Structures are given as structure tokens and as C-alpha cells.
Amino acid sequence: QVQLVESGGGLVQAGGSLRLSCAASGRMFSTYGMGWFRQAPGKEREFVAAISWIASNTYYADYVKGRFTISRDNAENTVYLQMNSLKPEDTAAYYCAASSLDLDWIVARSGRPTMNDFGSWGQGTQVTVSS
């Protein structure tokens, strides 16, 4: 397993940008698929974006596609989520997650990864977007 620590959350006005980082400790980070999920108060945790380890393919939920970008730096054991054109409805706690599974195969089979596909989670970082 890997240990994950998120950072970069904060308060931003609508239309602004934030970049979240997720630092991973542990061996073989480059062999883990990585994902971001978010959870707003009173709502279930939902998928945001993921990046596979085999081909670094990226996957996005429709509600962030074109605004958010996930990337990874295997040399730094870090995954990023660049969030642009933020909206008040993006307000949530954002969680980084790691998967030892083949996310490319999971997406081909199911359309998107789910929480059950990820075995390690960070503590979360709060993103608040004001209108």
C-alpha cells in the first residue's frame, strides 16, 4: 500500500483555479493507478478523475471534463489535479486514491473507476468556491 497526503485546497472565487497535489510514500508508486474523488456535505463521494499507470491514460467525470486535468510525476511520487474555471458546485473535500488494479481495463469494462477499485486513500483537502 501507499500512504497519500493531499495539499493545495483552499478558498477561491468562481472562475478561478487551484492545483491539488497528492504526495505518495511507499514503493512502486509508478505501478499504481491514481484517482481523485470528491465529497460535498450531505452527498456521496463521487469520481472526479483518474490516471492509469500503464499508459498514463486519463479519465474524467463529465462534470469536470474540459476544466480539470490530472497528471502524475513518477519521479516525485506525486499526482496533481489542476482545476480551472471553478464553479460553486465544485465545493467539496477532495480525496486522492491509489489503485493497484489496471484502470484502463476497468474503464474499458465499466466506463469509470469506482471507490471500490482504490485501496489507499488520503485524508482529503477542502476546496471551497465562492460565487
What does this structure look like?
The protein has 131 residues and is mainly beta. Helix content is 6%, strand content 47%. It contains 1 helix and 11 strands. The strands form 2 sheets. Strands 2, 4, 5, 6, 9, 10 and 11 form a 7-stranded mixed β-sheet that branches.
Tell me the fraction of residues in β-strands, as a range: over 45%
Count of alpha and pi helical runs: 1
> Radius of gyration from the CA trace?
14 Å
Largest sheet: 7 strands, mixed
Q: What is the approximate shape?
A: globular
Count every beta strand, where a strand is a DSSP E run of 2 or more residues: 11
Multimeric organization:
single chain
Order of helices and strands: EEEEEEEEEHEE
Q: Mean pLDDT score, rounded?
A: 95
What descriptors fit this protein?
single chain; 131 residues; mainly beta; 7-stranded mixed β-sheet; 1 helix; globular
Summed up:
This protein has 131 residues and is mainly beta.
Annotate the secondary structure layout.
Blueprint (H helix, E strand, L loop, with lengths): L2 E5 L2 E4 L4 E8 L7 E7 L6 E6 L6 E3 L7 E6 L4 E6 L8 E8 L3 H8 L9 E2 L3 E6 L1
